[in-house]
Amino acid sequence: MVNLARVNVVDNTLDEMLRGFFVRPMNVEATAPVQLRIDVSETESGYTVLAEIPGVKKDDIQVAVDGNQIEISAEVRNGRALQDGEKVLRAERYCGKVHRAFALAHDIDDAATEARYVDGVLELKLPKKTSARLKRISIQ
After folding, report:
1. What span, in angstroms and rounded, lies between the C-alpha atoms of 125 and 21?
2. What is the per-residue DSSP string for 61-112?
3. Theoretical Cys-Cys bridge with 129: which of 28, 63, 95, 109, CB 3.0 to 4.6 Å?
């Protein structure tokens, strides 16, 4: 005997479209802290680091060099004062502190480092520290 089933194409399509729709009625994602995006290039004499830090004032950026360790941190301030009667409907821009630390293969000559900040990009020129020449010791 053959079993026959009645299929309603419209109901099945609608069920497929709405499946899982009411599982999360509001998908509010927590905004993750902004990561500093960096490019690092190396030459024989040193390193060049380009870090994107848009919308930050030059005075709010700190760079520290310790041996081969580089630390870049910045304070991101996107807040503005609300006018009387104005209310925020949606705020997605990040406010707070961003930080990035990494190590390079060679120690850096911290006395000769240079930093420039133009159009939201921090450029660091990090010359390699010259290692001391091999000193021969005579045996007596």
Report:
1. 52
2. EEEEEETTEEEEEEEE----PPPTT---S---S--EEEEEEEE-SS-B-GGG
3. 109
Place of tokens 């500093």: 36
The predicted-structure confidence for 39-78, as pLDDT tens digits, reads as follows 999 999 999 999 999 888 999 999 999 999 999 999 887 7
Give CA separation, 19 vs 4, 10, 25, 29, in Å.
26, 14, 12, 21
The C-alpha atoms of residue 100 and residue 70 are separated, in whole angstroms, by: 8
Closest CA to 31 of 75, 93, 86, 84: 93
CATH 2.60.40.790 fits 32-127, yes or no: yes
Segment 73-98, tens digit of pLDDT? 998 877 677 778 888 777 777 778 88
Tokens representing residue 101 in the block: 């630390």
Domain boundary assignment for the chain: 32-127
Structure tokens at 108: 């850096």
